[in-house]
Amino acid sequence: RPPEPSIEGAFVVQLLSSIPNTFTTGQLTLANLWLLSFDDEILDLAELGATAGIAYETSMNTAGLRMSFRGPSQTLPSYVRRFCRRLVRHHERLLDGSAKISESVYRRAISDANRSPKISRLQKQQVVETASNVSDKEVAKQGFFFLRCTNGGCLISQGDIVPSESLKL
C-alpha cells in the first residue's frame, strides 16, 4: 500500500476448519464446485461492488475458506456482511431448487483442475469424473457440511476501518 493516507480499507476473513486437510479428491471437487457456483450466483453483488470500487477474492486453503475484500472504507463493511450472508444461504438455494449450477461452473472446475500443476493425473481424472456426474444437491450438501465443520474464524482489517466495524463484522 502507498504510504500516504487513503480512504481504502481491506478485510481478510478466514473461516477456520480442519476439514480441507482431510478431504478426498471428490469432496474437494464438490467444495470447489460449491464455491464456484456461489461466485456465479452473486454476479449481481459483484457488479454492484465493482461499480463502488470494491473487489473480492475467495479461495479454499488448508485452513478453510479465505475471503479477501478491498474497497472504500465507508461501504466495505456492509458489503462484506451482505456477501457473507449470501454465502451462508447459498447451499439452501441449491437444495430447494431456487438456484441451479450452470454448466459453465462445471466446465470451469474441470478446466482449473486440468491446468493445475499441483495435482496428479489421477486426481485430475477424478475431478473430471466427479464434476461430470454430480448433482446440484450433492454440491449443496458438501457446502453445508463445510460450513457446519467451520470451528472459528479470523478477521484481519487494514486501512481506514473503524475498529468497532471490524469487531461488529
Question: How many DSSP H or I helices?
Answer: 8
Mean pLDDT: 90
Rounded to an integer in angstroms, the radius of gyration calculated over CA atoms is 17 Å
**What composes the largest sheet?**
4 strands, antiparallel
Q: Which stretches are poorly predicted, pLDDT < 50 over at least 5 residues?
A: none
Strand order of the largest sheet: 2-3-1-4
Helix content: 55-70%
**Global morphology:** globular
Q: Work out the number of β strands.
A: 4
Structural class: alpha+beta
Q: What is the terminal separation in angstroms?
A: 23 Å
What is the string of helix and strand elements? Answer: EHHHEEHHHHEH
Beta content comes to: 15-25%
Summarize the structure.
The protein is 56% helix and 20% strand.
From the structure above, extract its key features:
169 residues; alpha+beta; 4-stranded antiparallel β-sheet; 56% helix; globular
What does the model show?
The protein has about 170 residues and is of the alpha+beta class. Helix content is about 55%, strand content about 20%. It has eight helices and four strands; from the N terminus they run βαααββααααβα. Helix 2 (about 25-40) packs across helix 5, helix 2 packs across helix 6 (about 120-130) and helix 2 packs across helix 7 (about 135-150). The two termini are about 25 Å apart. About 25% of the residues are buried.
